[in-house]
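User: Structure with (2R)-2,3-dihydroxypropanoic acid, tokens only please.
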Amino acid sequence: MNVFINKRIPEIGINMLKEAGLNVIIPENGNLVQEEWGEYCKDADAILNVGINKFDKDFFDRFPKVKAIALYSVGFDHVDIKEANARKIPVGNTPDVLSKATADTAFLLMQSVARRASYNFQKVKDGNWDLFDPLEALGQELYGKTLGIFGLGRIGFEMAKNSHRAFDMNIIYHNRHRNEQAEKELNATYVSFEELITQSDVLSVHANYTPEHADLFNKSVFEKMKPGAIFVNTARGGFHNQTDLYDALTSGKIWGAGLDVTNPEPMSQDDPLLQLSNVCVLPHVGSATMEARSGMARLAAENIIAFSKGEKMPHCANPEVY
Ligand code: DGY
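Assistant:
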């Protein structure tokens, strides 16, 4: 069975596939765009995909031999699940192994914005190390403040736990379902969306992205947030309207923003958000730890190996396919 992997992943995953007797094809050029995959995909039975490449009707029509997709991500918003289901193509993902790393990134962004870390680091790099100025670039403390989590699943829970333990933050959340574990262990309170946006000192997005969420955090939401609030997004850039976010940050409607995801990605170097001192942007590196990335390689390989044996993928985004 041929497995196409579009970019090198940690060896553990590649070795597992090879040991299972699968023929692994990885292009020399790790920066191939999806339009350049043709020669590799035409004979592939399964694809292990790194990144947000689109798997839609057009892709499945072009490569009918492909019968399984193992994503190297927990998010699967770039896959047309209906099309995959119609063709009985299982789509694997990598939950859990990256929850802590991604939550740590949200926690890092929250603190970086609260203490203007990236702005101050840039000043040092630019040779502007001012003498101690009691009024310059003051941050804010997070102790006892309210953290609002939009989407309290595995990653949201880890962010809530970190923040509650480190800063004794009061946790409120809005979610499709109540999270009993968070209510019990972290004293988290379920609130309406309106309460979430009006009561949070830090609002952190952790939900799975679907098209209905497009631009959910927009002008009308930012206007209702507290003027001292920090907006953090480590989920998907589509959740926020970036122009409205810029306006909210420059007009003082909100205090700061930390983003690991942008809209679009990659973000343009000229994006006006990058000029702001109250913003920290990272290039979608939420899961970029050795531990998480190895775990993702293992889970993706487990999914392909199960498929190759005619078994159910153990970590499957569309279990209804079986
Ligand atoms: C994920 O796993 O969904 C990350 O955001 C990488 O795409």
